[in-house]
Predict the 3D structure of the following.
Amino acid sequence: MLLNRGSASSQRKMRADKVTGTLAYLTDLSLPDMLHAKVLRSEHPHALILSIRTERAKELPGVHAVITHADVPGINRFGWMDSAQPVFCEDRVRYIGDAIAAVAAESEEIAEKALRLIEVEYEPLPVIVSAEAGLLPSAAKLHPQGNVLHRIGYHKGDVEQAFADCEVIVRETYETPRQMHVYMETEGSVIVPEEDGGLTVYAGTRHGNSDCTQLSRILSIPESKIRIESNPIGGTFGCKDEFNVQPYGALLAFACKRPMKIHHSRQESLQAGLKKHPMKITMKTGTDGQGMILAHEVEILSDTGAYATFGPAVLDFALEYAIGPYRISNVDVRGTLVYTNNGVSGEFRGFGGNQITFALEGQIDRLAAKLDMDPWELRKLNIRDITDEGPLGQRIAPTNGMKDAMKAISQSPLWAERENSIRQKMSADAPSSPSWLRTGYGAAITMHGSEPETAAGSHFLYSFAVVLAKTEVDLRTGRVRVLQLDHAVAAGPVLNPADFQGQIEGAAVMGLGFTLTENTIMEQGYYITRNLDTYLIPSLADAPIEMNVYPVEQLEEDDSHGPRDVGEIGMIAVAPAIASAVFDAIGVQVTTVPISPEELIGSLSVLMP
């Protein structure tokens, strides 16, 4: 069925307040006697700290406290998966945004003025500008254990012999951007010291228990004395799973014995907030003469920035999705996660799936072109069967979800348009368009793991999706306009149709930004992107003119596990579907996102001199 927003069985609380802008988020709180906090962050991407002088800042009227690493009563470190990021840097900074000191004052303006009075003497160090640079023997060590945070891989079959048996082989390298979350409410919290020596923390966070544990260690007080209130939250998309401003507000609230508010500006959020992991993915994939994939080799290089956060888990997920929903007997997949001085990467909607799926589906399209075969037929030929093992060799829930989603997408009007387009291009009488606008159709498929995970970290349950895209490319400017974007999603019974459709459509628009416009540009460890005036997120004018969502709700008789999640899968296959449509329109095969209009024009000049 085609979902109808009016058919929702329930409505979200606060829905009307959100869309009208009247909802008060936690950062809108204002309490009596409340002070305001600001954090002094590093001016250098990599440097030794020789001295920190705070005397002048403390003397400024209206300033109540100035704190550094020396004022942390407990452990001067935080991190959920790896507690290695300093609350305040002691002797070294590792990225533009590393915290050095914090100020509490009567107003934000006074606090900002006090920050300018803090004197920090640095000794700049060599900057690691990329994951490749971090692997060089001559690279500076960002952490005692070196610059490689995480290495992982898996192997099955005889890959070398399988490639020798292949008739068609495609080898390509793909690159993905450092995308920002750009939630409505930037990072912030209001923290209230209580009479019993504890704290009440009002902060937009998804993991209150973890926050409580980390604050307990930093403040050296029992967890039982810390209360977290985290709703309503103005968006997260993964970034607020990790600590951000809470330790600074908490330390200052303790020092001043007064309520403390800390709230990032958009520029501070850009500087100190987490980003999607940029990845460079090299794939070599081979088939026999009929299109059956015989061998697949993958090398992933991921930039985690200065600290770990969720980097190892994101890389693990990317490796799990490296063969996607396909049946491949001979596989060699390797991944390396490297420290750099490029901010800090972290959890982001898709959790590694966006990057790897862009590369994998690109390989399928390239193989189809070499085989002179419809890419859709190539996908159908290689889809796993219900009895096949999972991507990592694990047993997974018995489902034909991928095949079911591929059948369901035929309901889309784009399906018939795509079929007609293929027939026209095969016809000798196909008209040649004199227009500067060229239309193309593309498809991509994907799967995404749901809970629970097995002991080895692989998934037992999956959601499946097919994306069809219709694009229009302007040959004069290289601008890509997405006219229509349709999803078929197999994730079990739909509990709330409106929320289901909203998740898929919202994720699709976020995927549009990943594909066409969004990238946090850095040079030598410094942000070239400084605010939203130099970072383009999709607006209403950029959204597809039409989007449709087709759910597949039925499960196999042996599958009693109920609904799967859909919060992330709507984003994952958008980029390769759009890239496929661009190739269909103008014959240019994209290897980097966001797709650059300048590069498209350059490629066109080579193809059509």
User: Anything to note?
Assistant: The chain has two domains: 30-125+184-235+239-272, 279-607. DSSP finds 17 helices and 23 strands in the chain.
